[in-house]
Amino acid sequence: MKAVILVGGQGTRLRPLTINTPKAMVPVLNTPFLEHVIRYLRHHNVKEITLALSHLAQPISGYFGDGSQFGVRLNYVLEETSLGTAGAVKNAESYLDETFLVLNGDIITDLDITAMLDSHHQRKTKITIALTPVDDPTSYGLIETDVKDRVTRFLEKPSWSQVTTNMINAGAYIMEPDVIAYIPYQTKFSFEHELFPLFLQNDEPIYAYPSTAYWIDIGTPEKYLRLNKDLLNGKSNQYSLPSNKKVIIGEMCHIHPTAQIAGPAVIGSSCTVGLNVKLKGPIVIGPGCVILDDSVITEAIIWQAVNIGRKAEVKGSIIASNCRLGDDSIVEEAVLGDNVTVASGHKLKPGSKIWPRTTVS
Ligand code: GDD
Ligand code: MG
User: Fold this and answer.
1) Mean pLDDT value across the chain
2) What is the pLDDT of residues 295-354, one digit of tens each?
3) Buried (b) or exposed (e) across 212-235, using 16+ Cβ within 10 A?
């Protein structure tokens, strides 16, 4: 089976992290998000993947190249202006000459797409949509089905009064190539608002593949923190850590013998951790970070080359690359874009989102 990954969204809800970094390249356990997804597809024997991109494309193609390093063949299709989820697939039409998978580029899941493909073939349907249960369906596409799993209703972002089920569109579809003929050429068109409702209106069958396998999207900073925590705690079978150690430390790190690290923790290469520093997991620290004496970091994601001064406190926060936190600074439940400086002794308001290259004092 071939696959298309939709990676053209703006990632607005993840800002300021996605101002310089496409959502697909946001690091998860110090590896770009999309690399995890590509390895997952490869595991399910998908060997040719088309990436449907519309903005910040260069960092993605620069990193993944032709895909050979990851055991797959990668094609890139670019949209001049965003074409929507279905329009993006139309734009990739020349690569889709057999049954294919469409995957939203912001989900991590253990969904068994091999079994889903079997179900798709057994039902001889044109479209199979994976479903997953969630607590709050209002930020997703709600899907109602009959007893035979045939989709009867599709409601994108319902209000609470419209919620009739906790099963939502998991953002993974298996499709036959003739579906592409229903999508207009070079026109903004979405699966969720247009193509699926059109199928239902025309009484064309769409089948669901419900699954309770691990599933999460990285729509918001809270979800991103949750994803890291889940993976560090071994909640996914597919995306587990490369070793079953609780604390993984990269090459050429200098960790002071008095530093205390309570896992789960992943520390990238060439990091320095000073005297009496306390790192309390779940925590991920990118390569080239420096954390000076007596600082305490609890439940955080820190990207690369971040400098944290003495006696600083970081908790429940995400800190993008090249940030500097001064001595005695306090950062709690905050999201810092790249190159942010927090002055010594400054306490950020909890819930702050700081845009790149800002100095907070
Ligand atoms: N190439 C391209 N072009 N990709 C796009 C475009 C576009 O114009 N618009 C969105 N995408 C990509 C996004 O990058 C993302 O990977 C995926 O399509 C879905 O878009 P989101 O913006 O993340 O949608 P959502 O999260 O609000 O809702 C979607 O995902 C939910 C599951 O996470 C819908 O498919 C819901 O029905 C679904 O429940
Ligand atoms: Mg999304």
Assistant:
1) 95
2) 999 999 999 999 999 999 999 999 999 999 999 999 999 999 999 999 999 999 999 999
3) ebbbbbbbebebbbebbbbbbeee
User: Residue 104 pairs with which residues in a beta bridge?
Assistant: 6
| Ligand 1 and 67: CB distance under 6 A | no
* Ligand 1 contacts CB of residue 107 (under 6 A): yes
CA distance linking residue 95 with residue 2, whole number of Å: 9
Q: Which residues contact 355 (CB under 8 A, 6 or more apart)?
A: 16, 19, 337, 340
Q: What angle do CA 211, 33, 179 make, to 5 degrees?
A: 55
CA of 9 to the centre of ligand 1 (A): 6
Is residue 56 predicted with pLDDT exceeding 90?
no
Q: Could you tell me the distance, in angstroms and rounded to a whole number, from the CA of residue 274 to the centre of ligand 2?
A: 38
Spell out the domains of the chain, with CATH numbers in brackets.
Answer: 2-220 (3.90.550.10), 242-360 (2.160.10.10)
Cα 104 to middle of ligand 1, angstroms: 6
